[in-house]
Design a protein that fits this description.
alpha/beta
Length: 278
């Protein structure tokens, strides 16, 4: 369930969930996939042991977040700005005036939000991990299309809120992790709580690739993670993105599929919020 709702300057309410240590100054923003909702913890035992505070935000129409109002932007950049507004509010406590730089993690379409957040708010975001972001082509005129054009373009999705909507194979070995299936089911049930409005809003955002034109301004250290067994994506999108991000690199998870975020969650948190960084 959503922990709280934050009222943005527009008056719209945004759902927020805190995982891990609620008092830690090592803070990581988690951007959920499409469809998805806040509250999904890839590995609760790792999160609890990490000493990190994880803040997860629901996009409009999912979980506890209100749908967009008339005239509000549906762009990826606007969702990044929603998160930045929360991070700069009084709701993120900083002990003794200490400045916090945040890490960010994006799973699937959430990776576009995390990258846009880093590009638009470099003073806030120092490190980013993106997991399984599929991008087929971008609108920028100087860019060439990605290789492997048969890959699913960003924004396509099955018309359901089941595991298939996330490209998850029910035989994925990650389901040996206790409680993972229940956590995924809960995330998807919360994502569907308002019907299809969340996924429709995400789909509209995914059809506009203008966020990628800002990748060259990213100052954060970026790792682009792809499961070697995720046949629907491959690593081509990661290599394409890494060429456009000054500090971008691709990491391939051997044997990992679409649940690579679960497989390497400890390494992701170590990248996004290194120990000693607070």
């Amino acid at each position: 369930m959503t922990d709280l709702t934050f009222t943005l300057s527009s008056g719209r309410h945004m759902g927020v969930t805190t995982l891990g240590d609620p008092f830690s100054t090592r803070v990581v923003v988690l951007c959920h996939p499409m469809p998805g909702s806040s509250g999904f913890d890839p590995n609760p035992l790792v999160t609890a042991d990490s000493g990190v505070r994880v803040l997860s935000f629901e996009r409009p129409g999912y979980g506890g977040s209100e749908p967009l109002r008339e005239g509000e932007s549906r762009q990826v950049q606007a969702r990044a700005d929603d998160i930045a507004e929360y991070l700069t509010s009084h709701h993120v406590k900083v002990e003794q005036g200490q400045h916090i730089q945040f890490g960010a993690v994006g799973w699937g379409f959430g990776g576009a939000i995390a990258l846009s957040l880093a590009a638009r708010h470099p003073a806030l975001i120092s490190r980013v991990a993106v997991v399984g972001l599929a991008v087929r082509a971008l609108r920028s005129a100087q860019d060439n299309p990605l290789p492997n054009p048969e890959s699913n373009p960003l924004g396509t999705h099955p018309p359901s809120f089941g595991w298939d909507a996330l490209g998850i194979d029910s035989n994925d070995p990650m389901f040996a992790k206790s409680g993972l299936a229940l956590r995924l089911d809960h995330m998807l049930a919360q994502a569907a709580a308002q019907g299809s409005v969340g996924i429709e809003t995400d789909s509209a955002a995914a059809r506009d690739f203008s966020w990628a034109d800002e990748l060259g301004s990213v100052q954060a250290a970026i790792v682009l993670i792809y499961g070697a067994a995720d046949r629907g994506i491959g690593t081509s999108p990661g290599r394409w993105l890494a060429q456009r991000i000054p500090q971008g690199r691709v990491a391939r998870v051997p044997g990992g599929g679409s649940l690579a975020i679960v497989n390497v969650w400890r390494r992701i948190l170590d990248h996004a919020a290194p120990r000693g960084s607070a």
